[in-house]
Amino acid sequence: MSSCLNIQHVHAEGIKDLTVTFFQKSDMNSHTSILESTISLLNQNWNKSEMQKLAESLARCPALSVLDVSGGQWDEEILRTLTEFLPKFSITDKLIINDSCSSVEGLVVLTALLSDYPPVMELHIRLQVPVKVSIVFARGREKPASGISKSLCASKNDINMEGVAMLAAALCSYNTLTEIHISGGGKEEVNLKFCPDESDDKQQLKMFRVKDSSILPSDITKVCRKLVQSHFHWELELSQCSLTNKAIKNLLKVLPEMTSLQRLNVRQSITSATDALELVSCLNDSQRVTSVELSPQGDSFINFDTVKVEQVSCRLTHFCLKGDHLKKLLEILQQGPQLSDLDLSSNQLEDEDVSSFVHSLPRLKISTYVNLSNNRLTQQGLLAVASTLCTCANVSGVDVSLGEEERCLIWFRQNETREKTLRLNHSLLEQTEDFLQLLSFSQSGCVFSIEERWISAEKAVGLMLHCLQLNSNIQTFRIHQNTLHLTNSTGLTTDSDLSGNAAQSSAIKKIGLVDCAVNVHQLASIESVILSCPFLTELDFSHNSLGVEGAEFLCSVLPRLPNLTSLRSEPFQI
After folding, report:
1. pTM score, whole prediction
2. What is the spatial distance between Cα 529 and Cα 538, in angstroms, rounded to a whole number?
3. Helices 351-360, 324-335: inter-axial angle, 10-degree rounding
């Protein structure tokens, strides 16, 4: 082939068959493609001397895309002879050695190529019959970039958990070994990824991944004890694995000793609430936890920092956390660190469960919000959540909604303001007495926001009358389109020039019915209410169809509102 450049493929099997294929003349004349030959020398039982002669011949050949020397059944010395000449070959794609290497010693010789010969990118090994071994080169690169990674892929090799523990130790010991991926407990696949030694950089993140494996409690202890020795930052992934509760307990025992662990990924391995709560208990055992996110349907992980953290994010979703499970969770959280947020959405919680949670809320350390959305709550459960505005001094807002966009959020105060907000959206609250009762007992300055599709025109006016009748502490009443905004007051502050019976009147100072389709006839029905509000300073009826009759009505009540300072009714303004 060194003297005949138009040979496309040479195929020889044993000493019987030899086939030589030539390039077409059109291929030879083409300037758009690079011609690369392939050689298949199968079932050749060469000795060391014969292998050396072959290697010398191959070194003189032009570029080869594939060299296949399968079926040789060679020992370690013959393989070493082949690999020593490999840098002199011009192989651009792959070297195939199926059924030519079946010993561990031979594999060690081939594995050394990953570090000794830069163009070698991947080594694929399968020792079960049929034995398959191939070496993949950096096609198109004579000198690959120094930062490029390399991999060793072993499949169907019957590696047991003892071998997995040995690999865990190797990850801690070798700087260039950065990732180990194991599936089927080692019996299916073992992939090792190597990266150049970056001057012993302990900040690079290593990965030890076990997937689709059944891990016994003793195995988890054995593997984790090896990983404890790592001085590098690393991630442990146990995805789609079968983990018993005892195995999880053993993992948690070793967890505080894994001081370099940055992330524990248990995706689709934690499917029960019992196991999830076992993992959540790590909040009380490790001060490095930054976030816990567990779900049987998606991502499940625990993130760690290198130092003690101040706040933790906790998300537990799509489990069944009713009854005793919720009680256990609350016990863990009450003993745990400060939480930035707590997400308990989609956990089949019912009204009774949420009532228990609300009762425990003052004893929980949460700084931002709680998410109870997409559970099995009725209007009664939402009322229990809304009551936190009164029972928890640090709760600043509640946002609840039933229907298609079910939502239930509790927000906590971020500053010194005393303002509190209740937002109800599409919650089918045709009856507002319970929520107005909350308003009566809530602190001064609370702002209530209720968004309902039915708040408009006659119903908007009726809602206003109903609210002022039930609660005399309302300071501001405003309906804008379909949303009601209420602000309450703790009581009346009478001016010296007001009548002595003012204390029995409404404390309201501002009334607004804005852009909510109110007409002059509906407005007239609230005349007596307006006139019974001695502290009223602002009226806003903008963007409604009041017409001339509406203007006349407003002019008629103005003289009887001595403290009124602002009247708006587009297009005119006083």
Report:
1. 0.79
2. 14
3. 20
